[in-house]
Design goal:
The chain is mainly alpha-helical. The chain has one domain. Helix content is about 85%, strand content about 0%. It contains three helices and no strands. The protein is elongated and about 75 Å long. The chain starts with 5 loop residues before the first helix and ends in a 10-residue tail after the last helix.
Length: about 160
Amino acid sequence: MQLPAQDSILPLIQLSITPVILVSGLGALVISMTARMGRIVDRTRHLAGAACQASDAERAHIEHQLRIMFRRAKLMRLAMTLVVGSMFVSGLLIMLIFLSALSGFDFAAGILGVFLVSVVLMLGGLGAFVADLWVSLAALDSDVRRALGPDAATIRLF
């Protein structure tokens, strides 16, 4: 197998830039999601410890918060799985672009399909990430309303 000439490699590298940029951006997103997941885990552990020592009145609220935190952890797991899946598929896309160029076969339909799968996975991960944001605000709403007591009805949190 003969390697392509230098003047035909440049367009190939240019074609590979888009998935490389996508992987880079998704990597930054995964770092953010990992930090968020760490905070969820820490808060859940704190609440689990507090539940053991809480009075019956406080225990109901803590259990409610624990259910919310577990839901958030599952959403973040889904978000991270989808985003990392998008990164993986983007890596496959880069390989497919190079294989197409080196082999001389036209993989245009496959390349487009793999790119679309990568974007769909990314969008799903972003959707799960936004869902976690909404659930976290619901938990905050519960804490604020509990702290404000009867005055909570006079404010609109959302």
